[in-house]
Design goal:
Distance between the termini: 80 Å
Helix content: 25-40%
Number of strands: 19
CATH superfamily of the largest domain: 2-enoyl-CoA Hydratase, Chain A, domain 1
CATH topology of the largest domain: 2-enoyl-CoA Hydratase, Chain A, domain 1
Strand content: 15-25%
Length: 517
Amino acid sequence: MKKIQNTLKNYSIILLAAALSSCSSVRRHNERSTACIGTHELKEDIDYAYLKLQKMHPQLYWYISKKDLDYKFDSLKQTIDQPLTPLQFYFKLQPVIADIREGHLALRIPRKKFSKKEIKSLEHKKGMFSRFEYYVKDNHLFIVQNKDSINNIKPGTEILSINHIPVSDYIKKYRALISSDGYNDTFQPYFLKDVFFNFYTAENGFADKAYLETLYNGKKQVYILHRESKSITDLEKDKEQEKRTPEKKINDYVAYNDSYNRNFKFLDKDSTTAYLKIQSFSSDYSDRFYKETFEKIKNAGSSYLIIDVRNNYGGSLHEINNLYSYLAPEPYVLIKPSQLTSRITPLKTNYFRKSSPFQYAFKSLAYPTYVFAQTFSTYKKDGKVYYKMKAAKPTKPKKDAFQGKVFVLINGGSFSASSIITAKLKYDKRAVLVGEETGGANDGTVAGFYSYQKLPHSRINFPIGLLLVQPNIDFQNTKRGVSPDVTIKESMQDIIGNKDPQLEWVKKEIAKEKGNR
């Protein structure tokens, strides 16, 4: 009994120390984030970042030559002629990282950390910019949705400036921070509309008020946005949204925007056409979702299936392999063997990252098993090192695999895993792709799992993908995204008017085929 009491006492001390350490850590982090770093130290960070890339990234010179990348890093160092804060340094280094043209490869933007008290305060307030939906075209930012009718700002309104600084200046600055895989030009507008205010708040903080100069139908107007407090009803709704019901689990509910990552329905009364919208390949409960969905499709005797992966930034390789097993007419291999730079690379994945004291203790006990498993997950062939992946092995179709015609909707927001599966579907002639070129590359990407590096002086986080993941196809070497079989673009007016020209084209095509039977 005494031994148990001593253990509990020690554990309480550990928790108290962890809490105090957390408060101190937040303060130290915020002090460092505003302090200037010397030029010599910044140049060492640049060298450190490039060295880690050369050691770990399996396809560093896919879209840029070594000569050109060497020149960019050397040129960057020449511009470091005065001390900079981590944020200022980020805006100089990240554009060079973006020039590598690997969409998964990016520094994490330095930002202020919040104490638990500050986080709780923010949780009791509504977002200021996040309550709108946006659209980016060239150097213009438009509001396309205003669910709460804030200040009665109309969809189609362009934001000209925020707090008297032109939005076009921000867009030019932020665009240089973003890259897709390769040379496609469809990804940036989709991603930029989603991350614009992430960059903005990192630079300007979470203010309680903002002045917007806008333009609508040729008329300029100024609005003042306020960070409003949530009502009791709002807070109760937040709690309700956080509850994980069986339906929310299977369809992967996202409380942040009150939506589901997976949706399924029939588009007609006779269930001829099934529609599957996948917002993210998150993997959570996906096996059960696809099992139940394709059972319904088979029982309904559907002839057509529309899979919508527009604005799907990717996710789980397991999930797309499982989905493909419901579409394949015969056994298949989804991806080619995944290449690494060395056999020890999998051990550089920061095993103890973000571990609580209890988790750290548990992981320490399991570490030898982890090392053993990772060591035997690699193999060498023809002088190259590969990582064993289930998706690189033959997979049999599921018993309820869909036998009818498949259409897939894609756009510039279809990235990573979305591009892997669509490239495979197109190559196997298993689907008709409709929309626009994907933001992810046709010939694969570098991601899989990451080594979470931290630049030694600026303390900027730098996750580096370790696996070359490529669909099992004959490569086109276009250095572009997956191109659609039928190109149909969506305009801002389509979004505002809730029109979907891509889906409508597919519906008309299905109706035409049904009419010709």
